[in-house]
Design brief:
alpha/beta; Rossmann fold; 3-stranded mixed sheet; 12 helices; 44% helix; binds nicotinamide-adenine-dinucleotide; binds thymidine-5'-diphosphate
Length: 351
């Protein structure tokens, strides 16, 4: 039996990874470690939380003693590390929180893994989930980021993720800890917290409130459906080369303003509103400080080495996502009101 520690499993991407692993690998024990910050919501995993191979530990990755206890208690064989502070706008307001969780928290996990595995590296893996934002920003004419692109982070978020990536590589090179790093482009899909562009736009359309477009709206992001990311993680976890880095991306670039128009058109249609009726909600606002112009991922290495390809066309993925938000208005209402945090604080206090 393999004991797989997944950090950040109550968040957006983490919940899709936990669900996939719990269902697909009943012979493995999946330990979801999450601090349940504002972004973590155990309700994201309500459908699998009673499975016998699933365990939940509420803990802070920066709390080294607790992380060591969890390694010992569950005899951890492998880590898939997703826990992080993940929103660029928040990082501009509170950079210390990002340095603490993303850099020190990752260091605490690395050190616990190193001490617990103690040189017995066979069948061990520390798999770190990172972002394309560490590579900085592209001009429109530039080729997409490859695994060899230099690190040039601009936001406190991307700087903290770059710091964590460097620590992971340092543990591989210095101590021989078996590691893999993946850098993925922007994800979208169910369970994404509505501070991020796509769910925020859907939520605002539903409530007829302005949709803030930062700057000119011409910034470009490369969007990948979250379940395609989870499938890539599964593949790389099992077949990836130790010590490697892989880029993961959808080859699906959109200017923000064009993306927002697609979300508006699809949401209006699904709500039975007249075409374009939510267009007046588009509101240009002050630009984000240090706003990266363009991200784009070249995923050739992953495609050629492991045969991964995204399965969903964007039109299909965005409609699926919008349908999910429209039929889960309670989820949206709970996470925006914070009610679920109070509920789960009480639930876990009782355990
Ligand atoms: P998220 O904000 O939705 O979830 C993060 C989770 O981490 C939450 O459940 C939160 O409670 C938990 N967490 C935060 N601080 C913690 C701490 N100190 N200890 C333990 N748990 C803590 O984030 P996400 O969008 O699901 O991103 C997951 C990972 O993927 C992150 O590492 C992020 O950098 C990376 N990533 C995200 C994207 C994207 O588009 N969302 C793209 C590429 C990479
Ligand atoms: P976001 O979802 O925050 O992801 P990231 O900053 O990690 O790429 O933002 C995606 C893009 O949308 C980014 O260029 C900023 C822009 N944006 C807006 O224009 N308005 C908004 O309200 C938000 C949240 C983002």
């Amino acid at each position: 039996m393999r004991n797989i520690l997944i950090t950040g499993g109550a968040g957006f991407i983490g919940s899709h990874v936990v669900r996939l692993f719990v269902r697909k690998y009943p012979e493995c024990r999946i330990i979801n470690l999450d601090a349940l910050t504002y972004a973590g919501n155990p309700a994201n995993l309500a459908d699998i939380e009673h499975r016998p191979n699933y365990c939940f530990e509420r803990a802070d990755i920066a709390d080294f003693d607790t992380i060591c206890r969890i390694f010992r208690q569950y005899d951890i064989d492998a880590v898939i590390h997703l826990a992080a502070e993940s929103h660029v706008d928040r990082s501009i307001k509170e950079p210390f929180t990002f340095a603490r969780t993303n850099v020190l928290g990752t260091l605490s996990l690395l050190q616990a893994a190193r001490q617990f595995w103690n040189g017995h590296w066979e069948n061990k893996l520390f798999y770190h989930i990172s972002t394309d934002e560490v590579y900085g920003s592209l001009h429109p004419q530039d080729a997409a980021f490859t695994e060899l692109s230099p690190y040039t982070p601009h936001s406190p978020y991307s700087a903290s993720k770059a710091g964590s990536d460097h620590f992971v590589r340092a543990f591989q090179d210095t101590y021989g800890l078996p590691t893999i790093i993946t850098n993925c482009s922007n994800n979208y899909g169910p369970y994404q917290f509505p501070e991020k562009l796509i769910p925020l736009t859907i939520n605002n359309i539903c409530h007829n409130i302005p949709i803030p477009v930062y700057g000119s709206g011409e910034n470009v992001r490369d969007w990948l459906y979250v379940e395609d990311h989870a499938r890539a993680i599964d593949l790389i976890f099992h077949k990836g080369t130790i010590g490697s880095t892989y880029n993961i991306g959808g080859g699906n670039e959109w200017r923000n303003i064009d993306l927002i128009r697609v979300v508006i058109a699809t949401t209006d249609r699904l709500l039975g509103r007249a075409p374009g009726s939510s267009e007046p909600l588009i509101t240009y606002v002050a630009d984000r400080a240090g706003h990266d112009l363009r991200y784009a991922i070249d995923a050739t290495k992953l495609q050629q080495e492991l045969g991964w390809r995204p399965t969903l066309q964007f039109e299909e993925g965005i409609e699926k996502t919008i349908r999910w938000y429209l039929s889960n208005s309670d989820w949206l209402q709970n996470v925006t009101s914070g009610a679920y945090r109070q509920y789960y604080a009480e639930q876990y206090a009782r355990r």
